[in-house]
Predict the 3D structure of the following.
Amino acid sequence: MFNKGAVPMSFRKVFVMVAAVAALGVAAGAAFAQTSQQKALIDQAKAAGTVGEQADGYVGFRVPSSDSALTAAVQATNSGRREAYARSAQAAGGEATAAAAGARMFETQLLPRVSSGQWYRNAQGQWVQR
């Protein structure tokens, strides 16, 4: 009746919908983890090419920085995202992981928002300028 290992298409559709809804929750959760001042610092650093979005769903330093406020802002953002990705994976259940939630967030929400001239780190670990 069922092929062992095969997943019914309706389950896949449900999983994708749940993941999409969870991703929206992740975006909202991550936004609350940082202050408006921290967000402004990160936005400025993105424009300068110091930091960028990464394929794992976190903000990373493209070049070293001695700016302690920027480092704290990146840490706060990544901490919020880490928690949100874990909640998303838990809500999705099954074999979902926080790493998969972060990667999906990058693909669906973060990468499309990378502006022209900004940098992002692809899944191969290379920094690419849009």
Remarks:
- The chain has one domain: 9-129.
- The radius of gyration is 16 Å.
- The chain is about 60% helix and 10% strand.
- Residues 68-92 form the longest helix (25 residues).
